[in-house]
Design brief:
Arc Repressor Mutant, subunit A, alpha+beta, four-stranded antiparallel sheet, disordered N terminus, 4 helices, three-stranded antiparallel sheet, 138 residues
Length: 138
């Protein structure tokens, strides 16, 4: 079960809600930005937010074998989005990670490089790569 937790660095919070069919749903709500926006966290990704499990944590950290590193908000959103799916189209990633603004390819590349450097700090061999219009984590 996932408790509601503040994402201080991401200026947002995880909020537990219910769908129209009364099913539980986790939503990221960003309120301290110019425009408030919400990002649904699909059920397949909710498991990635368990406390101290390997992968992204709800507090903006990435855990790997008992070690953690704090990610910048956009890199955290990128890693959290890809963690369960493993591969997504570049356009799907852009819509999910940067929902209120358009970003160019260089912004995405910088975020991938920054995220990879942070993952290496905790000894995680999993890396994000971009090729042929897709971003994958492997």
């Amino acid at each position: 079960m996932i408790a509601e937790q503040t994402l201080a660095e991401a200026a947002g919070e995880l909020v537990a809600e219910r769908t129209e069919n009364d099913e539980p749903k986790i939503v990221l709500v960003f309120t301290r930005m110019k425009n408030c926006f919400r990002v649904d966290v699909p059920p397949a990704r909710e498991a990635a937010f368990e406390a101290n499990a390997d992968g992204p944590a709800a507090d903006g950290r990435f855990w790997w074998k008992g070690k953690s590193v704090r990610l910048r908000p956009r890199e955290w959103r990128l890693v959290a989005y890809l963690w369960a799916e493993k591969i997504e189209s570049l356009e799907d990633v852009r819509r999910a990670v940067w929902p209120v603004c358009r970003v160019n390819d260089s912004t995405v590349r910088v975020s991938i490089c920054t995220a990879n450097a942070a993952l290496l700090k905790v000894g995680c061999a999993v890396q994000l790569t971009q090729e042929d219009g897709f971003i994958k984590i492997a």
